[in-house]
Amino acid sequence: MATVKTAGLGYPRIGEKREWKLLLESYWSGKTEREEFLNQMKELRIRRLRRLQASGIDYVPVGDFTLYDSMLDHSTAFGLIPERFASLPSRDALDVYFAMARGATGAPASEMTKWFDTNYHYLVPEWTAKSAPSLVRNPWLEAFSEAKQELGIVGRPVLIGPYTFVRLSKGIAPGELQGKLKSLLPAYIQAITELTNAGAEWIQIDEPSLVTDVPEEHAEWLQSVYGQLKASVPAAKLLVQTYFGPVARLEKIKLLPVDGIGLDFVRDGGANAEVIERTGWPADKVLGAGVVDGRGIWRVDPDLALGKLNRLAARTAPGRLIVQPSSSLLHVPVSSRLETSGDEVVRHAFAFADEKLEELVALAKDLENGTKSPRLEENRQALAALQAHPARNRVSSVASESVRAPRASFEERRVLQQKKFNLPPLPTTTIGSLPQTADIRRARVEWRKGHIDQAKYEEILREKTALWIRRQEELNIDVLVHGEFERTDMVEHFGHLLDGYHFTGNGWVQSYGSRCVKPPVIYGDVVARDAMTVADTLYAQSLTSRPVKGMLTGPITMLAWSFSRDDLSKAEIAFQIARALNVEVLRLEEAGIGMIQVDEPALREIAPLRRGEWKEYLDWAVGAFRESVGGVKNETQIHTHMCYCDFHEILPAIEAMDADVISLETSRSHGALVEALREEPYANGIGLGVYDIHSPVVPDTQEMLGVIRSALSVVPSDRLWVNPDCGLKTRGETEALAALRNMTEAAVLARQELAAGK
Ligand code: GLN
Ligand code: ZN
């Protein structure tokens, strides 16, 4: 019997060919009946378990499969169903479940937000003063029993822990956190008791919130909560699993009264390992050693992983070390077997979920026997080839901003730019993309299939741009856009046009609900090739005397929404991308484009999970943005755009970006932002989105006027811009036109009020 065991913490649910997505969408559209849908889901679940079983790992996770989202599974299992869903026509559990996920008439969906710093979105649990959680269903028991009956697997049920559950909930005031945590305990005790009675041995309890800032008193609560849990179900072996970084207060957390603790040794920057080296590991505890990157797509470096494992083995009692991924494999595609096209060296270096399971088993063997398994020998070769790839050895990573003359102050630039563009007060503009109607999407499909040629495709796109330039003029918008009709995705589009990116054939990961994305892979140095946007922008500009903004995706967003290499730091990769984009920015300027927008919607998203690390991150993130727009003339107006985050948290960084104009989404947190701007005035041009582009409802002129008025209470009238929250690509043409008409009308009314001195 091997003494070094292996565990999977969670596995993709979408299926190798996105079967999960298709099943869900077919059910939602009414094409599949309920019973058939549930049967097909069961089949998918069983196939998935078979793979896990066949991989040879010792602990197979169960209960992490879901029909939508695991956090939602917990909310419904605990009976935390917001009141607005009580009056739905159907009280059926599955109907209510999907209503919470997707919304129903009169009952908006639960809020969705990013799962830590990943691109996965979970549904936020909602509490009210009346919430009284209890275990109304036990989905983990259902999953455990299924795996046992169908395949004889004694699975390791995966629950999200009570601490993380309350930390990620809404409707809990800071002073109520401990009370709510306690109120959840009986539900957890019951769920775990039932699991133990059914034959479960280990229970995995995920507490990723332990890698965020954990106040001292929370560490105390955790001791007591886990103490009670353990005392109530002494037969259960509890493993508290953390991931996405080093655990805060590990010296304390490692003493939790549980049977094992799982740690991330990939994204911990060495900090978890350091605490263990320095202070040891409790002899009675299992250590889950996450040494295979659960969020990256490259093969594990066996020597690095075995080095870590050997050091940890020296600190743990015999038989107490488990080799595992650093997190659930939910964040990587299913299998690299299907990658059959594109650069072979790159493809050969991939390890997706299935390959990572193989790696775990091989690592455990080599660790135990001191052998060098062929499986890992293959990794050594594949990674060496990748490292020697000519695309990895193209550029140096030295920042070049320092050698450039800095731009003049914003005040000086503003005067020059005003002279050049002569815009009215409260200038109106949009964020970049305009409705991508069916005809454009059809043309793209035809073009990709080779049914129409490049020239024809471009002609169709240009017709759209021409149409919309006329429309924007008719609407009397001041700063125009070409419409981004050529882009499906703002990162993928540029990835294809820059060097250093690889595109997988089937590398899908779940983003939210049934939506999956296929992130590009940065494998080499990112370098500019031909001009990417100059022709389209110039074409649009040739049709109008009003300024047309050039439109690019910023370096942080290009990095955040891709898989990237791990031989360079994130900062180094961001600076490479920034320099490649800068080539384009200067080309646009050279071609006569006077306004250039560089979007950074992901800037806040990849901020570290601990506040203490924000400064360092924001320094390089802002530096990369500045690098991307560096070297332009003072007359050239640099715009940027950000959305869907709490901007008030990062106002100083936004200021440091020093764009001439920033447009921000504000429909979700207008009030908070206005308050923050009152405290900390922002000097440059700023547009606070006046309407939410996600709603198909045409916004009312007076409502938007109200938003402008309140913005004017904190932004001087010669700095304020008027724009929607975000791009309009998902909207229909009629609604977009109506909404923009009302928006420009609101701007006119606001200008009249200004002129009248109101
Ligand atoms: N320029 C992009 C657009 O308008 C920005 C998208 C975004 O912020 N996510 O679509
Ligand atoms: Zn946006």
Structural overview:
This protein is an alpha/beta fold and 758 residues long. It has two domains: 5-387, TIM Barrel (Alpha-Beta Barrel); 425-497 and 532-755, Alpha-Beta Barrel (TIM Barrel), CATH 3.20.20. It has 26 helices and 20 strands. The protein has an eight-stranded parallel beta sheet. The chain has a six-stranded parallel beta sheet with strand order 15-16-17-18-19-20. The protein has a two-stranded antiparallel sheet with strand order 3-4. α1 (19-28) runs antiparallel to α2 (34-55), α21 (570-590) runs parallel beside α22 (614-628) and α25 packs across α26. The radius of gyration is 27 Å and the shape is globular. The chain starts with a strand and ends with a helix. Zinc ion (ZN) is lined by residues 431, 601, 641, 643, 665, 726-727.
What portion of residues is helical? 40-55%
Gap from first CA to last CA: 82 Å
Remind me, CATH topology of the largest domain?
TIM Barrel
Tell me, what is the CATH class of the largest domain? Alpha Beta
Largest sheet: 8 strands, parallel
Shape: globular
Query: What Rg is obtained from the alpha carbons, in whole angstroms?
Result: 27 Å
Side by side, the strands of the main sheet go 1-10-9-8-7-6-5-2
CATH architecture name of the largest domain: Alpha-Beta Barrel
Q: Can you tell me the number of structural domains?
A: 2
- Count of DSSP-assigned helices: 26
Taken as a percent bin, the fraction of beta residues is 5-15%
What small-molecule ligands were found? Answer: glutamine, zinc ion
Number of E-type strands: 20
- In round numbers, the mean pLDDT is 95
Structural class comes to: alpha/beta
